[in-house]
Fold:
Amino acid sequence: MRLIPTEEQRELGASVRAFLAETAPMARVRAVAESDEAYDARVWERMAGELGLAGLAIPEAHGGSGAGHGEVAAVMEELGAALTPSPFLASAVLAANVLLAAEQAGDEEAAKDLLPGIAAGTTVATFAVPVKGDPVTRARESDGAYTLTGTVRRVLNGAEADVILVASVLTDEVAEEGLGPLAVFAVDASAAGVARTPLTTLDLTRPQARVELADAPARLVTTSGDALARTLDLSAVALAAGQLGGLRRCLDTIVEYAKLRVQFGRFVGSFQGVKHRLADMHCTLEQAESVVRYAVWAADESPDELPVAAALAQSYLGRAFFQVAKDHLLLHGGIGFTWEHDAHLYYKRAKGDELLLGPPRDHRARLAERLDLIV
Amino acid sequence: MTDLDEYGRRARAWLEANASDLSPEPDLRTARAFMAKLYDAGYSGITWPAEYGGQGLSAAEERAFQQASRGFTLPIGVFGIGFGMCGPTLVSIGTEEQKRRYVRPLLRGEEIWCQMFSEPGAGSDVASLQTRAVRDGDAWVVNGQKVWTSVAKQADFGLLIARTDVDVPKHRGITMFIVDMHDPGVTVRPLRDMSGESHFNEIFLDDVRIPADRVVGEVNGGWSAAVTTLLHERVSIGMGATRTERPASFGPLAAAARERGTLGDPAVRDQLVELYIRERALDLFNARLAQELKAGIQPGARGSVSKLLLADLMLHGADVATEILGPDSAAHGEGDRQDDLIARTLAMAPGMALGGGTNEIMRNIIGDRVLGLPREPQVDRTVPFRDLKVGTQAKEAGA
Structure:
């Protein structure tokens, strides 16, 4: 078990940090967030081209650089810390993971066709992560061709993506209660029968859209339940790394402020009421980092441990990031409640992240199941 | 095979021959005999200087021995304070004569050591201690009371800090001494703690005469000597103490819930999940600290994070355990081993949050030394000790 990043991963993180500081400082993040743009296309182009991030985890055979989940985590941490609006998570992580898991399960065609574009950054893809309780779309087959019908309530970067991967249930396999095994399909977002409505998101840096499908032409990616399960676990791990980056940035920011802000003739960080909360937040950071490193290691090296590690990572990080983001906002005092201060951006990102793959109770239920506590 | 592998292999072979069937808490004679054998085989004081009786080897050999001793139960608890705190203090700041006199018998288990710092009036603020040492000819005469002293009943010697000057601020009037625990005037009384057992002692010092050559470090330089000792507190004595499974932890509690048929209750399930999350998060943090240490990254004050989290976890685990086991854990018959263990765990749990620095002190340390936050204004730095308010004050009339 490896719980400290490699030298290469640290270097990758440092170069992404330097790049984001230069191209996407907070003023730019705010400008993009408040505009109609979902992300800065110039920055994404350079991330994909110069830095090669769009194809980071995609094998060289498909035009990527074949790095591991540890490298993806290093990038996610920096993007999470900087709040950079970017299709990296949707395209290079979520969608790429689905296609790679499908390929591993023997369904190679969609991977072969779609991954090179994703790796180059010229195709932006996304994956509508199925969330418990949401309606599920139906797939119908006719002469070997599929169409999808139904509503996907929230899709990350759904309005901008060129390709949307959707988990759908095959109509002829629907069981009585209306559910059945899920298969993953790829939908061309510009096809007839695809209607996309941007949603009002709490987190302005992560746009989502509702996608309505009415007999929309779709391509079958995989019917492998294992591929889908692995994808969901890998998504949980990558998101957790982004949450860790945000959590750390929140703590760094408020610690610095507590060393500068004076009230009652003293630096506020010298008051135990403040200091002890910051100490507790640091304890949360130390554990969060350890949990993420473990889950990332499991993703790269130990597939048997991944299901528990991934559920643990989301169960811990969702709560931890929001708790720290909330306390960091509160400890700023009144200034933290203003629009001009950045604290609310982290607070909203933390809440958005906590719910992105389903609420914490879903992850805890998954953990309970994997710990064999369900009787 | 490297020399180090060979060292570890030989250590393992020695342990297999000499430590295969030892109880963790044997009688004192057996424990001492084991230490003597360990010393004579060259495995006690591996990194300690050779001129005073250690082996003079590096941390690599120490680690190799630790690895080799994994899985063995070594009867070393009673020597822990000496190895972990008193010995290293003597080695770093003791006089040449003190090192020659005390280190070797300590390493060989011939002499057991204890540490006398805390007082009833000086807990978190040890530097406000009131035990007095007054110079009388070629000796010091000591009067006062110490508390929370482990292994004092068995100890032959102890490190004591006492006040030697009341006219200077509190940190500057303290001196460290070596006390012969068999001397007249030293009374050791077991302290019955809230678990009903005695894990610590109180010590009464009445006109105890200490020869002047038993001062450790400088006269009135005892605070920096004590800091040296406390720095060593967290350095493990490095001989694989076995980790037994805690009764109020996820594994046994999940099994108990399954057995009692309460796993189907979603509230019980979620409590177990929460306990699992906290345990794993702390275990993984400890494992990461260990990996960092191996990679040359010093943990520094981050050890306090581990201590604070463990204290919280033990209180939480004991609490959850009683909820899962229900009323049986508060009222059980004689043969109910698990309920008995949980009741004892609940009664022991506050100890971790108080001993070795309370949770509040840990948070101060994390805030000051890990996060670098500004310190609190200190009112006791410049006031002469005689004018300082210390201990527990009497309630003022009318207050």
Observations:
- Strands of chain B lie at 113-116, 132-136, 139-149, 157-163, 174-180, 186-191, 200-211, 215-216.
- Chain B has three domains: 3-107, 113-228, 250-370.
- Chain B touches chain A at residues 254, 258, 263-264, 269-270, 272-273, 276-277, 280-282, 284-285, 287-288, 291-292, 295, 297, 302, 305, 308-309, 360, 362-364, 366-368, 370-377 (CB under 8 Å).
- The domain at 3-107 of chain B is CATH 1.10.540.10 (Butyryl-Coa Dehydrogenase, subunit A; domain 1).
